[in-house]
Design a protein that fits this description.
With about 120 residues, this protein is of the alpha+beta class. Helices cover about 30% and strands about 30% of the residues. The protein is rod-shaped, with a radius of gyration of 23 Å.
């Protein structure tokens, strides 16, 4: 009897652990990566277009303004970069659209006339 109890307990613990891991890594509806490591991170995926003073438009890569290896960018940081691009005289205005991924789930984000709008 003792010989069959140990494998049964090991199997039950293994199944419970696998179910717990699967449940922990699957997103809830409207949520993105509910694992605790991601719960405080905010990622912005956005397409921006800069308009120069003479009316030409060109794509803007916000990560060119960040230090190498940076990838976490929330709306306040995005607003700071957009303000810098306009204040530096590089662009008269910046516009764009994208998504913000955070603990609150996915949200649309827009940049209208150099202002970040959630």
């Amino acid at each position: 009897m003792h010989g069959s109890v140990l494998p049964a307990v090991q199997a039950a613990v293994t199944v419970a652990l696998v179910v717990w891991m699967i449940a922990g890594f699957t997103p809830l509806t409207g949520r993105w990566m509910r694992w605790k490591m991601f719960c405080r991170a905010t990622f912005t995926i956005i397409t921006l277009t800069g308009t120069t003073k003479d009316g030409r438009t060109e794509p803007v890569n916000v990560y060119d303004s960040l230090s190498p290896g940076s990838f976490i960018l929330g709306p306040p940081q995005l607003q700071t970069i957009v303000k810098h691009l306009v204040a530096s005289g590089r662009y008269a205005r910046v516009d764009g659209h994208g998504r913000v991924l955070s603990a609150r789930g996915e949200q649309p984000v827009e940049v209208r006339s150099s202002r970040v709008v959630l």
